[in-house]
Amino acid sequence: QAFFCLLLCIPWGSSCPPSCQCTGRAGAKAVLCSSRHLEEIPKDIPRDVVFLKLDANSITRIPSNAFRHLSHLEEIDLSRNAIEKIDGAAFKGVAARLRSLDLSGNRIRSIPKEALLALSAKLRLANNPWHCECALQELLWEARLDLDSVQDITCHTAPRQEYVGKPLLQVLDTGVNFCSVRQRTMDVAVFITMFAWFAMVVGYVVCYIRHNQEDSCRHGDHPRSLPSAQAHAE
Q1: Is domain 21-129 annotated with CATH 3.30.750.24?
Q2: What is the pLDDT of residues 60-93, one digit of tens each?
Q3: In the chain, where are the structural domains located?
Q4: Given phi > 0 = left and psi -120 to 50 = alpha, else beta, which region is 35?
């Protein structure tokens, strides 16, 4: 009975994932899960964690609300994983306190802007196979990136072959604007759509006029045939 009472007195947040090590760092809880062959983010991370290291694992995705219950979290290290997909609400619930987020050395080609722009944390995004496009350019302009790692954000793929293999900053310094390219593409698409709609309306009007003309011709021929019929009857 005393043992059962003792279990009830232990806070749920004090547990530690089996594959990790939980320590006190400068008076704050740190959860160290580096190089533990993890394929996903552990479910049982203590709620009072402040520093979370998940680097050098095999995590492939950060799902929505992955850290939502960790309201004290200030630093996340997800570097050197195999992350390819990050959901738009991946960091929902930790945006207010998070100070550092390391996503370098993964397999990230693109990230939904809403996943990172809500954060005030310093971001490390280097050494990923980025697709250089408008979303990444806007992220570079609007997010709080770690200045020491910005030069290592390189175009793995891009709309033009000449940009491939070059740092994104270097490409943008030449005057390239990926967002204007997208805007021109959208403008062309809108123009084509409007032209198709206009052609359809014109076609409908032409068919309508021809149909009315044919009806008028049929009604015009009918009265002229009446006298002939009447004379034949006499």
Answers
A1: no
A2: 999 999 999 999 999 999 999 999 999 999 999 9
A3: 21-129
A4: left
